[in-house]
Specification:
- The protein is mainly α and about 120 residues long.
- It has one domain: Helix Hairpins (Orthogonal Bundle).
- The chain is about 80% helix and about 10% strand.
- It contains two helices and two strands, in the order αββα.
- The chain has a two-stranded antiparallel sheet.
- β1 and β2 form a beta hairpin.
- It is rod-shaped, with a radius of gyration of 24 Å.
- Keywords: Chaperone, Coiled coil.
- InterPro entries: PFD_beta-like, Prefoldin.
- One of its GO terms (cellular component) is prefoldin complex.
- One of its GO terms (biological process) is protein folding.
Length: about 120
């Protein structure tokens, strides 16, 4: 029985895992950036007086917003982004394990294939 088709199939699966892993890493980096941005906004809010005027950008328009409401919105956004990052970290760990397992499978198949070719 030839190992070549199975080897090709496993290599394709491994490459798909690598693509998925890369996408998740990219998403996590984007979320990290959003988290830092929102944390900076939260710190800026702490520096404002209670009666300060806050504006929220909605499309091309700045809309006046109460400081307490804006503060709560930013805190909720930080919580949501943090939860998403945690979820993605779980995915990263899972994909990493799957990649390692698939990599070992591919190596074994390559060795078997090389042995068949030498025989």
């Amino acid at each position: 029985m030839s190992v070549a088709p199975q080897l090709e199939k496993e290599m394709a699966a491994f490459q798909n895992l690598q693509k998925d892993f890369s996408k998740v890493i990219q998403s996590r980096a984007q979320l990290e950036s959003q988290l830092k941005e929102n944390e900076m906004v939260a710190k800026e809010f702490e520096l404002l007086k209670e009666d300060a005027t806050v504006y929220k950008l909605i499309g091309p328009v700045l809309v006046k917003q109460d400081k307490p409401e804006a503060t709560v919105n930013v805190k909720k956004r930080i919580e949501f982004i943090s939860a998403e990052i945690k979820r993605l970290e779980g995915q990263i760990k899972d994909l990493n394990q799957k990649q390692e397992a698939k990599k070992e499978e591919v190596i074994k198949l390559q060795q078997t294939y090389q042995q068949q070719m030498a025989a």
